Known about the structure:
Low-confidence stretches: none
Bound molecules: adenine
Amino acid sequence: xxxxxLTLFPEMILxxxxxxxxxxxxxxxxxxLDAVNIRDYTLDKHGKVDDYxxxxxxxxxxxxxPVYDAWKAASGGKKIRTIYLTPQGTPFTQNLAxxxxxxxxxIFLCGHYEGIDERVLEEVVTDFVSIGDYVLTGGELPAMxxxxxxxxxVPGVLGNDTSAEEESFxxxxxxxxxxxRPESWHEKRVPEVLLxxxxxxxxxxxxxxxxxxxxxxxxxxxxxxxxxxxLIKQLSKDKRNNIHMMESLSRGKGEILYxxxxxxxxxxxxxxxxxxxAEKTETATKLSERLPEAKWxxxxxxxVKEVLVTAGYGLWGECNQYLYTAKESLPVRYKxxxxxxxxxxxxxxxxxxxxxxxxxxxxxxAGEIYGAFDGDRQIGFIGLHNEGSMGLLYVEExxxxxxxxxxxxxxxxxxxLEKGWTPYGHVLTDNTASEKLQDKLRFxxxxxxxxxxxxxxx
Length: 458
Ligand code: ADE
């Protein structure tokens, strides 16, 4: 990942980050960080970059010309996401950090004095972001905060693979308390349950602690969490048909964008996917007007599909939804299966034609594509799509009918179960081979079809 910071204080960025984990990642060339001095680009012979504001008011404003030229130099004319740090921006969140961590290149623009001439902001900025409701003297500290939060999510930056699922803010909950040796300190003992070795009990205790903490310190987050839990419960009344929405919410991916009784829009921003449900045609029309820009829209009601097609969305395919409700893991008979790495991108994308190479790379980096091997030879793969469904299944022609697809599915199911997820998948209605496999593995088939529509950003 390449990071550029446009600033009047480049040394503040470089020296501030150098001794940190992010500095080490720069040394190891996992990320690159370049601080561009905006003053180097001024055409003013005295090196001036600011002037008084039109209409009066206290303080000076950074002028458009040096900012624009510094931005042009950093971007090299490419379309790069450019973030302006400002208290007037949208609040920075872990979700935005996750979204930005997927970009190959980012530009951070740091303002000073009273801000920057609006005209250059209009031309270069894609995101206006605030790190909190307080005013700092410049955008450098906020840029460093954002760089730290984003860069640590880039694979390879942190030594250990921290699990995003257990961090604070995942699923709108704060993290539970943690303890290390000794077992007793200042006469305070480590909670007994953590010494029990009972994984299920420990998970339950941690969830309760997370809930209690969130309610106490962040009632705003807790309210969001409760609303989601309530909706998941409602949706579970028709689990087979609603599993895609339930899993999107419970895995901490989808947000409730709109809800009025049985009219619902869930939006997974990272996957650029909307899922919706409506009570009747009129409300479906209203919902379609509220849809955000997204690559994909998933619906499981035929009349909603009709409304969306009429509104100009393209029908990509009709699928059957399958879900695996058993809690036990499955035997994996074919043993040589493991997570793929980015070296495997060309192999997967040359075999799997439904998605782009960029998408395959992103899925591999997420650790959610698994491959089967015969010695060094790759012979197949399976994975999870970014909105949560199982898919991306492929086995080389000469290795078919030997149970390898079954083993790949079992392997993927087991990974989902380990995370506490319910595995589910969407099978195109004409793919009888895949339908047979789902039946064999004791997946349940939902009664309603799932329709995938391409959003207007396609
Ligand atoms: N610049 C000054 N204050 C800021 C804040 N709170 N967030 C982002 N940029 C800023």
